[in-house]
Specification:
The chain has 2 domains: about 140 residues, 3-Layer(aba) Sandwich (Rossmann fold), CATH 3.40.50; about 180 residues, Rossmann fold. β11, α11 and β12 form a beta-alpha-beta unit. The chain is elongated and about 65 Å long. By secondary structure, the protein is α/β, with parallel strands linked by helices. It contains 13 helices and 12 strands.
Length: about 350
């Protein structure tokens, strides 16, 4: 049987979010059977690109598409008219602002198949009215880490500043990924404050940047840090361009820490990346028992104690206990190459099954 060919829609963003990174990596993994296409209103260019493929792949929500509210629907409609399969990979749903969900709905209605980043997202979508008139060809796709350990590290000013703190005896707590309220990033501030109150010298590094376009998030974040008496202990790196520099920063972290409102879910690629760093990751457990059933890499990292689970409803004091325990027990490294190859084979198989719809 002839292998299917794909057009993978991407944005023009230079500072990529996790969803954008997944789209670009998926195109790479599909190899010569996939082409990237930047979303826009170039009808001639779109028709030309579609003429050479069997299916198109959308990934939602992409931060770089925020100002392009109509282009996804335009692209999906043209693909439908040209009888190309439309595969949508949906990474978030209920967590999106309702206006963003409204913009995505026409594309969901035109989809040939939908792949969800986690069973929780599939359930959220199933509970929405648009689900009743959207294709029932649906699947759960395991989300990969949004970066992997490089062969060599590239220390920079940010990692060197953290190294100086460590040399002075400071315990460095880290979190990787974008900073936004629904991720409860500020809970790490409370955990650090709890450790400080116990007499531990702690520093906190957020390896990432604030989500753009969200009112007052950065101001409120630093005001909270100030009120907790830890403002001078908080580092926010901003966007870091290369894996080599990112993992040089990771190297200075003692323990990564996450406390999600819904517990760990399979779509948290930033947790996967931290788990592959060789540093322990403390995170609250999934709320549902099957949350990671489809994701072999997550399960393996947990089995090897690279990711250490605490109670789903853990408070700051409990998390502080877990952080102290984790920092005294080095997280074992796993052989990432084999696991990642296996994971990407699973991802491609799920997406391609949608492309055959």
């Amino acid at each position: 049987m002839t292998e299917k060919t794909y057009l993978v829609f991407v944005s023009s963003a230079t500072e990529t979010c996790g969803v954008e990174s997944f789209a670009r990596l998926l195109a790479d993994r599909l190899g010569p059977r996939a082409e990237r296409h930047e979303l826009g209103f170039d009808l001639f260019g779109l028709v030309k690109a579609l003429s050479g493929v069997d299916a198109v792949i959308f990934n939602f929500p992409v931060v770089g598409w925020k100002k392009k509210l109509v282009e996804p629907t335009f692209a999906a409609l043209v693909a439908w008219l040209m009888r190309r399969k439309r595969v949508v990979v949906l990474h978030e749903w209920q967590a999106l602002d309702w206006k963003r969900r409204l913009v995505l709905m026409p594309v969901m209605l035109l989809a040939s198949s939908v792949c969800f980043s986690a069973p929780e997202i599939a359930d959220e979508f199933a509970a929405s009215p648009v689900s009743n008139v959207t294709t029932k060809r649906r699947a759960i796709v395991p989300v990969p880490p949004n970066l992997v350990p490089p062969a060599t590290l590239q220390p920079g000013s940010r990692s060197q500043a953290l190294e100086q703190q460590k040399q002075a005896g400071r315990l460095i707590i880290g979190q990787f990924g974008s900073i936004y309220p629904k991720k409860q990033s500020t809970e790490v501030l409370a955990i650090a404050a709890a450790l400080l109150a116990r007499g531990h010298d702690v520093g906190i590094v957020f390896v990432g940047s604030f989500i753009k376009g969200m009112d007052n998030i950065e101001r409120d974040f630093f005001e909270l840090a100030r009120s907790l008496g830890i403002r001078d202990r908080v580092t926010v790196t901003g966007y870091v361009a290369t894996n080599a520099e990112l993992f040089a920063i990771f190297e200075q972290v003692d323990v990564f820490c996450y406390l999600f409102p819904e517990g760990l879910t399979a779509r948290r690629g930033s947790v996967l990346a931290a788990g592959l760093s060789g540093k322990p990751v403390v995170v609250n457990a999934p709320r549902r028992g099957d949350a990671l059933a489809h994701h072999g890499l997550f399960r393996r990292l947990i089995e090897h104690k690279a990711i250490q689970l605490v109670a789903t409803d853990a408070d700051a004091a409990t998390m502080a206990d877990a952080v102290l325990e984790a920092c005294h027990a080095a997280a074992p490294r796993i052989e990432a190459g084999t696991e990642l190859q296996r994971l990407w084979s699973e991802i491609v198989a799920v997406v391609e099954d949608g492309g055959q719809a």
